[in-house]
Amino acid sequence: MKKFFRYFIIGNDHIPSFSDYKRAMLRGTLALIAALTSAFYLFLDLVNDIQGYASVYVINIVISIVTIFLNKRKKYSLASAVLLVGLNTSIYVLASNDTYRTGVYVYLVCISLMALGIFGFTEIWRGMLIVAYSVALFLLAYVFKVRLLPMPMVNLTPEYIDASFTVNILVAFVLCASIMYFLMSVNHHSEAALQAIVKEQQIAEQKIKQQNEELVKANTELDRFVYSASHDLRAPLSSISGLLMLAEMTEDINELRTYHDMMKGRIDRLEQFIRDIIQYSRNARFELTIEPVPIGAELSEIVDTLKYTQEGSHVQFDVNLNDIKTIFTDKTRLRVVLFNLISNAVNYQDKLKEKKFVKITVRKDAGKSIITIEDNGVGIAPVHHSKIFSMFYRASDISQGSGLGLYIVSETLEKLGGTITFQSILGEGTRFMVELPARAE
After folding, report:
1. End position of a domain, from candidates 191, 210, 227
2. Which domain holds residue 326?
């Protein structure tokens, strides 16, 4: 029914502007009400054998039909002029020839409101012209008693007058209510559109603010990265260069082996630094790839890699999976996090302790995957606790790393939507706890 009414009023053509659409619907609706009202009076006059005003009612019906036809053809300005000027004129003819007791003059007020609603604020001058025209016609009809088109006076019965007055007032209410509904609808739509624009602006401002913060962070990290990277790249190379000079000056095989081992250590350190840089770059550039990760296999591979190193050969590894087989996350990034944390637990063992261990526990709690890595190594002094996740920060004098490991862990977990916390007592050990968000399997 709604689609049929819309088609009858404005046709099937799409009207992109909401305001134009609502005005077209209002124009067509008011024309339809005018036609129905005129048809009702035409019928009422025929029943009461009143023939004086039939031609005016027929003209009103024709005006309404022409308006709807022009409205469907998108001739909006012409349709408005035909409707408002035509109805104003026909109402004046009725008002100037009819007794004021029928209340027909109230339609002049309705037409004024119709003009303001149809033309809107952008064409307010056209609306005001129609209002002025309505006021002039009212004065001519009821103040100056000017009959532009004199018609034969018709004797109306009190019952007819009462019925006409009631119908005219009711129709006037309907017209005014339709116009007010239109105005409220346009206003509501405008407010909703404005709120949407404000919300979009707030989102855009928040996004710009976030981007600015990220840019400041990136610039700060870049400055630190360039400074620290140049130092950490130059230091091993300078050391290797010096060791080569010393090796060229000696023929003692034992000294040569010592220099060889020292150079190998510097090369390993340089290789680790380059690996850290690659991990940092990949985390920043690559998109997330969420997949089922066999956590047991990942931990076994990392443990097998570390327990055959010089530092890990004296460490007892204890892995407790709690029957958890898979974790849905980014496999490559999870491996970076686990390898850095477990290798740190191995590298910072307390050499004075007879039993050295690394405990790895996997569990799920409140929809989160929780991985705990605990060791009984040298621990971290409280003064370093607030800085260990900073770029190029080394919390221990025995550190041979780049200072990027825990920073990479923190950045990687942020990308994964996870968190990391830790507890550490100097001389007793450290425990890191990684929480990863639950994802649909």
Report:
1. 191
2. 289-436
Q: Quick one: tokens of 319?
A: 């892995």
HEC per residue, the chain: CHHHHHHHHHCCCCCCCHHHHHHHHHHHHHHHHHHHHHHHHHHHHHHCCCCCCHHHHHHHHHHHHHHHHHHHCCCHHHHHHHHHHHHHHHHHHHHHHCCHHHCCCHHHHHHHHHHHHHHCCCCHHHHHHHHHHHHHHHHHHHHCCCCCCCCCCCCCCHHHHHHHHHHHHHHHHHHHHHHHHHHHHHHHHHHHHHHHHHHHHHHHHHHHHHHHHHHHHHHHHHHHHHHHHHHHHHHHHHHHHHHHHHHHCCCCHHHHHHHHHHHHHHHHHHHHHHHHHHHHHHHHHCCCCEEEEEHHHHHHHHHHHHHCCCCHHHEEEEEECCCCCEEEEEHHHHHHHHHHHHHHHHHCCCCCCCCEEEEEEEEEECCEEEEEEEECCCCCCHHHCCCCCCCCCCCCCCCCCCCCHHHHHHHHHHHHCCEEEEEEECCCEEEEEEEECCCCC
Whether residue 175 is found in the same domain as residue 311: no
177 and 299 share a domain?
no
Give CA–CA dist 350/332, Å, rounded.
30
Q: Which of 191, 211, 230 is the last residue of a domain?
A: 191
Within its chain, how far is the Cα of 109 from the centroid?
46
Residue 238 located in a structural domain: no
Q: Are residues 140 and 31 in the same domain?
A: yes
> How does pLDDT run along the chain (441 residues), one tens digit per residue?
777 778 778 888 878 787 788 888 889 998 999 999 999 989 988 888 887 788 889 999 999 999 999 999 989 999 999 999 999 999 998 888 875 678 888 999 999 998 988 888 888 999 999 999 999 999 998 888 887 766 666 677 888 888 888 988 998 998 888 888 888 887 787 788 788 888 888 898 899 988 888 888 767 766 655 545 555 556 567 667 777 777 778 778 887 788 787 777 767 766 766 766 666 666 566 677 888 989 999 899 888 888 877 788 889 999 999 988 899 988 888 888 898 899 889 888 988 898 999 999 999 888 889 999 999 999 988 888 888 887 655 655 555 555 677 888 888 898 888 999 999 999 899 999 999 987 655
**Structural domain count of the chain:** 2
